[in-house]
């Protein structure tokens, strides 16, 4: 019988699994747009905006990688908890 905490954790996991690809695409797209707009700024502000843009792109790539490997990570972590 599933407890309330287990059901809540499962619901949160399924919600994040559904939202992760959308969040990753938004981060990469917003990072590209920000980087492009940073090119129109003076030198002293350009570096700040480029840093933000690269951070968004890298964050989007990390979210994509974790989302893609989520099932593998789940299987491996479940096997670590099994007694030998």
Using brief descriptors, characterize the structure shown.
single chain; 84 residues; mainly alpha; 0% strand
Short description:
With 84 residues, the chain is mostly helical.
List the SSEs and their pairings.
Layout: H1 4-38, H2 43-68, H3 70-81
Give an overview of the whole structure:
The protein is an all-alpha fold and 84 residues long. The chain has one domain (21-81). The protein is built from 3 helices and no strands. Helix 1 (4-38) packs antiparallel against helix 2 (43-68). It is elongated and about 60 Å long. The two termini are 25 Å apart.
Percentage of residues in strands: under 5%
- Helices and strands, in N-to-C order? HHH
What is the number of helical segments per DSSP (H or I, 4+ residues)?
3
Which consecutive residue ranges, at least 5 long each, have pLDDT under 50? none
Which structural class best describes the helix and strand composition? mainly alpha
- Helix content, binned percent: over 70%
Radius of gyration: 19 Å
The gross shape turns out to be: elongated
Distance between the termini: 25 Å
Q: What is the total number of structural domains?
A: 1
Largest pleated sheet: none
